[in-house]
């Protein structure tokens, strides 16, 4: 007479245990994403022997100390017999690359009056510390100040010469940098709308709200426009980008019609750097 009730109780216990297991698994996933999000965004690595000859002749290390440790950026001066550069391009790499990777991309750069400041994030290359939006801002500003002193220029004298370029995460860093300085030009390669929206495409919308830090390129471009309405901005994006979809680059261009948008047919996330190399260099100098 009581067997149906026993079966019902057994089924209820199994159901409760199953739901508890699912909940525990979900919360474990949330905890992993929350605690490990830094390693999901940043992939720091040091320079190895393959970079020994990477810095071009005449290039120099720019070393400075921050509260979080010693930092090293790289300065590639203009090829104009020691005169001051007409423009200084501040370059930011992707989250798995290093500052000196720009030396191969910019090989054969035609304008001898332009110079480059190649900036590594804290924890990358020869830099100590821990990368974050705040530490990257502080380090890049300190690199610029250190270089200004090296060149015998005030910050006010150097600012009108500034341009910036970045790839992937570095494009967001470049846009953020341009929103805090009066730059002439910005080149954003394989850029996203916001880091949170990019994360949503990987881990889902609800979980993306666990992201503590989020670069917002819409806000950054708005700040650039406020600080210098004459600044020129270009976005280059591979149509086959498997990391950051090309629709994000298009969306920024649709929202800000003053941006020059260059879809690079068939190029993926990294290949766009080589496939669009000549177009990028031309735009930088047109």
Describe the strand arrangement of the main beta sheet, using strand numbers. 1-2-4-3-5-6-7-8
What is the fourth-level CATH superfamily of the largest domain?
Answer: Alpha/Beta hydrolase fold, catalytic domain
Shape: globular
CATH fold-level label of the largest domain: Rossmann fold
Structural features:
single chain, 286 residues, alpha/beta, Rossmann fold, 2 domains, 8-stranded mixed β-sheet, globular
Write the layout of secondary structure elements.
Elements: H1 3-35, H2 37-41, E1 60-66, E2 69-76, E3 87-92, H3 102-105, E4 114-119, H4 133-151, H5 155-158, E5 162-167, H6 169-178, E6 185-189, H7 195-203, H8 205-208, H9 217-227, E7 232-238, H10 246-255, E8 260-264, H11 272-275, H12 277-285
Parallel strand pairs: 3-4, 3-5, 5-6, 6-7, 7-8
Antiparallel strand pairs: 1-2, 2-4
């Amino acid at each position: 007479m009581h067997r149906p009730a026993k079966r019902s109780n057994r089924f209820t216990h199994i159901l409760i245990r199953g739901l508890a297991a699912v909940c525990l698994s979900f919360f474990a996933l949330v905890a992993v994403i929350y605690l490990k999000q830094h390693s999901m965004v940043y992939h720091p690595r040091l320079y190895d022997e393959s970079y020994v000859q990477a810095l071009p002749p005449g290039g120099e290390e720019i070393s400075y100390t921050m509260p979080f440790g010693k930092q090293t950026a790289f300065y590639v001066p203009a090829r104009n017999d020691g005169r001051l550069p007409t423009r200084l391009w501040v370059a930011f790499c992707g989250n798995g690359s290093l500052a000196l990777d720009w030396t191969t991309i910019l090989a054969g750069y035609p304008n001898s009056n332009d110079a480059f400041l190649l900036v590594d994030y804290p924890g990358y290359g020869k830099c100590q510390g821990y990368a974050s939006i705040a530490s990257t801002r502080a380090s890049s500003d300190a690199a610029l100040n250190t270089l200004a002193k090296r060149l015998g220029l005030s910050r006010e004298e150097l600012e009108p010469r500034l341009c910036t370029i970045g790839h992937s995460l570095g494009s967001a860093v470049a846009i953020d940098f341009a929103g805090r300085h009066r730059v002439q030009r910005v080149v954003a390669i394989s850029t996203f709308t916001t880091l949170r929206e990019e994360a949503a495409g990987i881990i889902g919308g609800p979980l993306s709200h666990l992201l503590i830090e989020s670069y917002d390129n819409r806000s950054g471009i708005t700040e650039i426009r406020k600080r210098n309405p004459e600044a020129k901005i270009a976005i280059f994006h591979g149509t086959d980008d498997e990391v950051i979809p090309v629709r994000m680059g298009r969306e920024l261009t649709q929202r800000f019609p003053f941006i020059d948008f260059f879809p690079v047919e068939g190029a993926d996330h990294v290949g766009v750097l080589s496939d669009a190399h000549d177009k990028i260099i031309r735009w930088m100098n047109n």
